[in-house]
Specification:
Layout: H1 2-12, H2 14-21, H3 25-51, H4 56-83, H5 85-91, H6 95-105, H7 113-130, H8 142-166, H9 174-195, H10 204-228, H11 234-241, H12 243-256, H13 262-279, H14 291-299, E1 303-305, E2 325-327
Antiparallel strand pairs: 1-2
Helix pairs in contact: 1-10, 1-12, 2-5, 2-10, 2-12, 3-4, 3-9, 3-10, 4-5, 4-8, 4-9, 5-8, 5-12, 6-8, 6-14, 7-13, 8-14
Amino acid sequence: MLTAALGAACISSSAILVTLAHVGSATTAFFRCALALPVLALLAMVEQRRLGPRPLSSRVYAVVAGLFLALDLVLWNYAIADVGAGIATVLGNLQVLFVALIAWLVLRERPERRYLAVLPIVMVGVLLVSGLLGRPAAGLHPMAGVGYGLATSAAYACFLLILRRASEHKTHVAGQLADATAGAAAGALLLGLVSGGVQLRIGWPSFFWLLLLGLLSGTLGWLLITSSLPRLPAAISSLLLLLQPAAALGLADAVLGERPTPLQVGGAVLVCAGVLAVTRKGAARSRPDCEQDEAIGKAGGDRVLLKPGISDLGRELDPQYRGKVAPATEAQLRPDFMPGR
């Protein structure tokens, strides 16, 4: 629990570090990924020696997923500027709802009643977070920021779905993240060149904050969370992950002076509660009922890796937990958790 909490704390600082870097959205996304690549590449090499090489198709899928991660990061950086660091982090954690929505529209998988019941509550929370009711507390353009925040969650959902296909039948973690990060760096650079908003020469203060962002959030925080959540019950894991938007609101207030209004705080609580309600699994059920897990499993070809002896989430870095392949409709799904913030 302490490791997961530390990981969530590392990732919760992302929006604050983006704000402190004070460079363009595409520039921030590019340097965040590029500066994390050397460490991830080294970890990927060590992992490959232990587990063997990955198939080319898996690596291609990971790079394509990284292109959607680049779009996610660029849009999220716009959201930070328009609605504030704390609120943007809350809006950027709605990917679980978008995964279920995409599965409904594209894969023709009707979501469970719980999702349909929670969705209006989350939308009310988003409305309160936007600052339309009352005076906005932070950000230049609250409405535009909400739009960017919702779009970044949609892009992150696409990233998760494609990455699920990339990780099919494999337990490589660092290599998968390294390929996706490389794709994200290339995608961010391309978006910046097209829009004319990328700067390859930045000042040392900005470079320092971006380096800290890449190492603290893109590498350390992700590894801490991914290595700890498989050893925790699903309900506790979901609660710990909600520390990220909650801590981001507190850090934005303490470091940046972005004090949300009471209505925005109430909206953030509704959003977090809605996400928790959708992702939480019933303890008495043998199969997971999380729409995100099922949608990612379907997108991965209805086949997952069984990993006996670990928690409901089934995510593990240690290769000793590798199991056999079984149909997702008959076995526990193994979602690949990728905190992209």
